[in-house]
Automatic annotation (TrEMBL), chain B:
GO biological process, one term: cytochrome complex assembly
Its biological purpose: Required during biogenesis of c-type cytochromes (cytochrome c6 and cytochrome f) at the step of heme attachment.
Subunit structure: May interact with Ccs1.
Protein's name according to its UniProt entry: Cytochrome c biogenesis protein CcsA
Pfam families noted in UniProt: Cytochrom_C_asm (PF01578)
Alphabetical list of HAMAP family matching this protein: CytC_CcsA
GO molecular function: heme binding
Membrane topology of the entry: Multi-pass membrane protein
Signal sequence residues: none
GO CC field: chloroplast thylakoid membrane; plasma membrane
PANTHER family xrefs: CYTOCHROME B_B6 PROTEIN-RELATED (PTHR30071:SF1), HEME EXPORTER PROTEIN C (PTHR30071)
The family this protein is said to belong to: Belongs to the CcmF/CycK/Ccl1/NrfE/CcsA family.
Amino acid sequence: METLLNPSKTPFLLVPKPHFFKPSLLHSSFNPRPHSPFTRRPLSVAITCKLKTSQGRKNDGKKNNNISKKILLSDSAPELSNEQGKAKAEESGGGTWRVIRKLPRKVLSVLSNLPLAIGEMFTIAALMAIGTAIDQGEAPEYYFQKYPEDNPILGFFTWRWILTLGFDHMFSSPIFLGTLILLGTSLMACTYTTQIPLVKVARRWSFLQSADSIRKQEFSDTLPLASVKDLGVILMGAGYEVFLKGPSLYAFKGLAGRFAPIGVHLAMLLIMGGATLSATGSFRGSVTVPQGLNFVMGDVLGPTGFLSTPTDAFNTEVHVNRFYMDYYDSGEVSQFHTDLSLFDMNGKELMRKTLSVNDPLRYGGITIYQTDWSFSALQILKDDEGPFNLAMAPLTVNGDKKLFGTFLPVADTDSPDVKGISMLARDLQSIVLYDKQGKFVGVRRPNSKLPIEIDGTKIVIVDAIGSSGLDLKTDPGVPTVYAGFGALMLTTCISFLSHSQIWALQDGTTVFVGGKTNRAKAEFPDEMNYLLDQVPEIVESPISKQPGSIGG
Amino acid sequence: MIFSTLEHILTHISFSVVSIVITIHFLNLFLLVDEVVGLYDSSEKGMIVTFFCITGLLVTRWVYSGHFPLSDLYESLIFLSWGFSLIHIISYFKLKIKKRKNNLSAITAPSAIFTQGFATSGLLTKMHQSAILAPALQSQWLMMHVSMMVLGYAALLCGSLLSVALLVITFRKAIKIIGKNNNLLNQSFSFGEIQYMNERSNVLLNTYFLSSKNYYRYQLTQQLDRWSYRIISLGFIFLTIGILSGAVWANEAWGSYWNWDPKETWAFITWTVFAIYLHTRTNKNFEGVNSALVAFMGFLIIWICYFGVNLLGIGLHSYGSFTLTSN
């Protein structure tokens, strides 16, 4: 147990120094109970590994005295002793106590069940797919119309289903969140009951003492004239950790690949936790501010959950100094910019920054994003009088998203049907003018100072004033989520590594080699053949190593 | 002008070279029992030429448009094609050291030609001109996010196609066996049993299927299974990095790291399905046919994610959207 926690004590690299041990110790460490706690769990790999090694060791212990004390220590697996302790506690306690003790374990074993976890993931995938298929966040009337009862989709799916199950807001519906929580608990249970014990098993390394057990491995080969030491050197060159003791060799590579899935699960839990924090502790808000006006952050931001607590930074006042756009030569918008100043309550400027899409402003935990824009007003001179500010209104014609228009009445403003000049704009760059009859007159750019004469009225467009559409948010979950992201990327990459184990045994001049790997099963035989080809052939008389030690 | 001509030439060269490569593969398959080494080598060289042509194509576009060539669907398709040929080249060089034949080209070469054919076909003619970059795309994250996503798609498509091949072989075998041996049929013939036979290879194969053909077929399915697992794992890494870098980017550009935007959601669905695939591999009972079925599902879902969402043109990822109606 001690060596398990402290691996530096266990291995001795390529030192064929035999250690002798006391048989009594070995027997005491192998309790005949280890089967029961494991058969209860879905731990097939662990069982086979463990039983095989313990069985082999036991036989060896009886037949030869060739196993080092250090190895022996590592064999007393900590989880075994824990299990025994727990089992004893159960036996000593009363019946109710036993039920109470068993209940969490039962729940755990149900939760860590792989088919259940797969089912949960499928459910989540299906719910998300439904969530993209049904338009989200519409008014109930929309669903009445789109999913009518007299014409159900697939014969049963109507608006009743959508509204009862909350599929109109899928990603915050109790069903979806419940499945996510269930998946989260499954993740935890699986990590606890399956993955961590698996690692403990994987970290215990063992020599195989019989040629038969080596030949039973997924990959096996026999080298007729070879030395196990040469093999060890070659394996070390290929990046394996090699342990050599007498005639037997054990080597492994990519152990991190076995641990990494735990990291993946923990990273997922971290992301889930961070996302929960985001959902319950954030503030969000959006505002469209005309150039030159102010707003206070706290007025815009609204809490998203019960954990949302405002900070001092909420009192900051934001002034939009300028809003402008960059254009490509073709006239399309290339970038939006907003020049913002932040003032504290006393009117002192705290910060000034020009933000754009992909370049938000961050201050005191609050982030301001450039997300939208609008046309606020048009400044014109009418017959050299003014300037007048004409408010621009968004128009929706043929589903056009960005079209703004304003109207300048001319002549008699008191008559019932007022006539005037219409001005339309798609962006802040060019204004299209129409006369009283609605006929096209011309296009003018703001700042061009070029007058245009319409129905006897001379008009100069002085300036186009835009409004900046800003999104504000605070999100306390971001650091946690980002930590989870980093961990997830890293551990997913490490998970690609395959944990390969190689055993070899010298029998006279013959070396039996066997090995297995958990992921790279396709490449492993190739790699092994490639390595074994490099093992030199011995010509001289073989090194015979304690022939009695090769038993079983 | 010179750039577009160059691009044109490169497209044509790569397209025709891949066609030749595929023809050689078919020749190998149908005409020659033992493949001629020279032909095999030339097909490998053809793939290398293709790889460099597509690389040149992408670089050309990058130079003259001034931004990373992944801003619309056409470019991403070309990049996908490049991803296929990259996977091919890597596996080729990896196996060349060990002097083994590259079986993957049966999957990668046709995939490359189909994606490229689709990209250059008439369906998307309007998109060939590289367009300007929308404000939200003007970020260093574009390179990381989109390249990782498309590489992930390429690897996942490759891996799941291998699984589909496995399914086809297994189903054919199942039908054959049912047709041949009636006594076997009596013994509750399910897929679980086939798998079981797969695992207990030698013994069962010797007793049940006496011919060596079946043994080779078994070996082939096992190889397909293992390679598909390996390549899907690789693609899963790319997909994970792609989704997460996209989330970080979204937190810079859109105001939140996760918006449940349709494309985002479908990428997550893809991720979930392949996570399920990887989990099925941890259990011996699910290996083989069951996991291949999951991979096949993932294959369909990638296409929904990659095309379906763009076809609808919904959500925030509307840059890559296109319409199939020509007007």
